Amino acid sequence: MLELSDIKFRYLKGEYFQFSYKFDLLTPVVIQGVSGSGKSTLLNIIAGLISPSSGYLRFEDNDLLKLSPSERPLSVLFQSGNLFDHISCLRNVEIGLNMKSRINSEEQFIIEEVFQNLGISDHKNVLPTEISGGQRKRIALARAIVRAKCLGKKLMLLDEPFNGLDFETKSECINLLKDGCFKEGYKVIIVSHDNNDPTLLGAKRVKLENILK
Amino acid sequence: MKLFITSITFFSLIFPLMGLSKETLTIYTYDSFITDWGPGPAIKENFEKKCDCEINFIGLDSSIGILGRLQIEGKTSKADIVLGLDTNLMSVAKETGLFAPHTVDVSSKVNLPKSVQGKWEDNLFVPFDWGYFAFIYDSEKLKEPPQSMQALIEDDDFTIIIQDPRTATPGLGLLLWIKSIYGEDSSVAWKNLSEKIVTTTKGWWDAYSLFLNGEADMVLSYSTSPAYHMIAEGKNNYKAAEFKEGHYVQIEVAGLLKSSSNKDLARSFLEFILTDGFQSVIPTTNWMYPVITTNNPKEFSELIKPKNAFLFDSKKVNDNRISWTQEWLEGLTQQ
Amino acid sequence: MIKNQSNGSKISISVLGIGVTMVILGASLSLMVFLYSFGVGNQTLDFSQLLKDFRVGAILYVAGQQAFMSCFVSFCLAVPISSILAKRYHWHIFPPLFGMLGLVLVMPTTVAAVGILKVWGLNGWLAQMFDTISFGTVGWVNIYGLHGVVLAHVFFNLPLMIRVLTPIFLSFPKEHIFLSEQYGFSRVKFFWVLEWPAIKRVALSLNVLVFLLCFTSFSLVLMLGGGPKVTTLEVEIYSAIRFDFSIAKAAALSLIQVAIVACVIFILTFFENGLSNNSAIYLPLGNRLNQEKFPRAPLRNYNKSIVISLVKDIFWLSPLIFIIFLPFFAVILSGFSESLIKVLKWEIFWESLKNTILIAFLSSSLAISLGFLLAYSKVILRSSNFFGRNFFLGLIESSILIYLAIPAIVLGTALFIVLRKFADVVALSWLILVLSNVFLCLPFVVRIIEPRLFSLESKHKTLYKSLGLVGAKKFFAVTLPSLNVELGLALGIALAFSVGDLSVIALFGSNDFQTIPWLIYQTAGRYGLSDANALALLLLVVTFFFFFCSKFLVQKVCSISVKI
Predict the structure, then answer these.
(1) Is chain C touching chain A, with at least 3 CB–CB pairs below 8 Å?
(2) Which has the closest alpha carbon to C242: B170, B328, B64, B172?
(3) Cβ of B196 under 8 Å from any chain C Cβ?
(4) pTM of structure
(5) Chains that contact A by 3+ CB pairs under 8 Å?
(6) What range defines the domain where residue B206 resides?
(7) Considering its fold, how many domains does chain B have in total?
(8) Do chains A and B touch (3 or more CB pairs under 8 A)?
(9) What digits encode the pLDDT tens for the residues A70-115?
(10) Taken in order C15, C20, C21, C27, is the CA torsion positive or negative?
């Protein structure tokens, strides 16, 4: 369960947000709202990439605000800029395993598996600049899943993860996520503007207005 | 932008034409001579009063720079007079073949130390000021300055800053000074001296600034430097160390160019140099001794008066300066 | 249709650029050869004897050593410092700090050296402080020697490196920073994964520039070197002209220097292309330096280490304080005396100021235009692929660095000899000054503009084509405005150099055309030391003012150009 209570944040330029909500996360959650209304801000705060000025943030009885971003049990997928352009896709994923320079064989196996499930095995050793936007998204998604499997970071915050994917690929990803939620206990929060997504995912739909005060 | 460039070009072309009404005497000299607080302005005023002419000073970056310029220009130089070479450069200047005899009766008017008599006399050049090279120290910080070059070289208590002889006249002066005292043993002298040298700078300014900031006990400069501090700043603590063996002398000279089209005017200027109108300006603007007997400021009487003065004749300097500098380099770089 | 248009303008720019390069290189080389023959005409010279007789090998070794150490130390300090400055961008001290770093470039070398020694010298502030702390038991280091020279070079070059590197560090997309925090990157990993790829290309060209600057340095080397043991080829060349009166020897030595510089340049070009392929090119949208900056992890309150992080950062920033800020402060302090008021009353000061400003603006606008052209040519060549491309790139690079290769005194003497035949040299002295300023600034201008220009062109290639943005339209609507930060910096630096430059003009002699640096040298030449210090302080003030203006000026120009 993820609980936000009176989380307040103000940008330098003056925009002000206040969030309060309880996510039970037994099923995935899709957050919907108008562009610029604070969805990315919300995700960033949960991830620890920006700090609220006051409030409580708890995940399964842990006070997240005390933890630095790398200590929090979560992964974030951004709208863009998810991959480092000058290292291979495989390496991009490996890097997500928190500083390990040597990947043991078990982890390697998991990575291979996830790559296959997402249909991107061919792109392992190329640079992100050489593949399409949709393929890059899948690599980023693979990284999040690998982190969940290997490091137990099961909370996933995905910002428009299916943008740019064709219907088939999107379905594959969605199924993978649903599977993961069910079998392995991923807790997924997705930000999306597509009205069909909650149904496809079997997710609970939450409007951003309900989170904002 | 275009207008700007055009007008600048226009004016720069017009400008030379503007001085044509009176006779113009073009004098090459070094930069600091012609600054507002240097000798230039007063001398210009004094001479122009007498001659009904106009002096056009052209300031070059150093005395060596003047010579370099002449060498390039050769016979087509526009200068009438060259003012600011020193005795070391005289021989090189002579070799250019560009100078004409001055016909001024110098020796009867000039008053220089006896031991250097004869070595600066020349029919091509007229001396206009002179001074001793000396090490300057702060008497409040250094209570017992060395009293001889020997003491400076042997005692370990002093640190000095000097200039590179290849780039600054005092540096060359020190080179010749040591040569005058030690002759064949100069390289040994330099080796011993090198331990006390904090640094060798490119110009006089750098060295003197560092000394004033306390980086070394003494700096190589002129024996007249304390006069500046006394007169302009009212400070009495800077003094020159007087060396038993004697001091090397720098005499600055002026000469007339063969290619000048104003020879008569130029010669009268050279005569003017040895008069009060020129010489009285020198002490408090150029901070050197005048060459004729004249009334110096009273502070000048407090300056050191070495018993002995050294001066190599110009030809000897010219013939040997490269090998002597090599010797200096070796003395300092091999340790 | 569009393809032809865009290619057309690209080709014409690069051809123009190469053409200009040829002119520059050709002129310089022929000047030198001419000088050599002129010299030989008057004197005899045995070239091989020259090489033997001269400690050329020893000189090159020492010069190379201090140059290498200088650029190495500068770079090693610049990277962590720039990284910290980028991280703590929101500090209010940032803009003035940045501005101050640019001022360092304008200081006449002697003034700066005296300032550095005032802090680090045998009787300097640090020495006195050390003395007090240790009760006179432990002596302070003797800075004169190789270390002193490196210190002084770092003083001049570290600010330049910081100013080039920091904007690059500021341009990381925020997502990449977030990723690094998510994955708990250690400091080292952060460097390897994020920072190094972004600065790889620039690092090489920057270091080469600094190396060459230090290799050809002159009065700093003499003053802080402690003696003739530490020297460079420039010293020997100067000595050849001024002491040996041998123009031929000077020309011969210059040719050696040019050969060395040319080698270094061609090696640089060769490596630079290799590095291009693996470096990250960042081009976030919007005006980078005004982006919302998210404070990085150690700055947020996780109940840990805000203070430790601050202390660590200040520790890494401390070289800035000791090496740059303190000497800078020393120079400013020595300028404050009664002389300051006295100097402000001098008519000649205002006269020089006026001339200095005119020359500075003229030089810097020419420098920027020329620099832009050459940078653009380089970028175009770089993104094309034809046989001999590297050769042309090397040529362009050489023309940019020509001023470093050929000593001012040689160039000046040669120019002088040539120009005499055509005109009154004294009247033309302002033109020579402008030209020499242009070439002095050129390496810096190009270094600053090129990286971003390259990023712009390569990232948005297809976008331009699809929008039909080619040639002049593209230039005014997109290219120029996107470069406004770089242009501001380049203009500021060009102005700074032009204001503080002395160089060639010293050879020409002029009683009418006075600039402030020259006034400083004149004043100092006859005991006017405190006046000279006051003038130097005023020079700094003027330059500071220029930096300010140049930013606004460039922004104005860019906003106008967008409307074209």
Answers:
(1) yes
(2) B64
(3) no
(4) 0.85
(5) C
(6) 131-248+303-333
(7) 2
(8) no
(9) 888 889 998 888 898 888 888 888 888 865 567 778 888 888 888 8
(10) positive
